[in-house]
Design brief:
Blueprint lengths: L4 E6 L6 E6 L7 E4 H5 L7 H23 L6 E13 L2 E14 L5 H14 L1 H6 L11
Antiparallel strand pairs: 1-2, 2-3, 4-5
Helix pairs in contact: 2-3
GO molecular function: peroxidase activity
InterPro entries: KH_dom-like_a/b, OsmC/Ohr_fam, OsmC/Ohrsf, OsmC_Ohr_Peroxiredoxin, Peroxiredoxin_OsmC
Organism: Phenylobacterium hankyongense
């Protein structure tokens, strides 16, 4: 299975702007720019999208972990806070901090901790954040 997103950018890094589109259509020419990334202009940014992906992936992975262990959550609510920090002349994403609040009837703390830790370590987005990246670049 392959999921795709497409980015288009016009202009310089600080004064330019772009749009993000996903194959599903959830994002369709959604604006992003320096101002949506580093200031508070309306639009999105890569870190926000990574945070959404990580929160969603982890929460679904935990739901599967709980199901396999015989538990049904009433609610799993996860926030992912992705940090973008200075790195020399540029920036780096330094961490993704997950905060989970869960309601799971009949589950004790030790088992909850085990399942949550396993979901964090094994959800595909957590693995990606620790994985290598490939690039195929062509100048037309």
């Amino acid at each position: 299975m392959i999921r795709k997103a497409h980015a288009v950018w016009r202009g310089t890094g600080r004064d330019g702007n772009g749009e993000l589109t996903t194959d599903s259509g959830v994002l369709s020419e959604t604006p992003y720019s320096y101002k949506t990334r580093f200031e508070s202009e309306r639009g999105t940014n890569p870190e926000e999208l990574i945070a959404a992906a990580h929160a969603g992936c982890f929460t679904m992975a935990l739901a599967f972990q709980l199901q396999a262990a015989g538990f049904t959550p009433t609610e799993l609510s996860t926030e992912a806070a992705v940090s973008l920090d200075p790195d020399g002349q540029g920036f780096k994403i330094s961490k993704s901090a997950l905060t989970l609040r869960a309601q799971v009837p009949g589950l004790d703390q030790a088992k909850f901790d085990e399942l949550a830790r396993n979901a964090e370590q094994n959800c595909p987005v957590s693995k990606l954040l620790k994985a290598g990246i490939t690039l195929d670049a062509t100048l037309g």
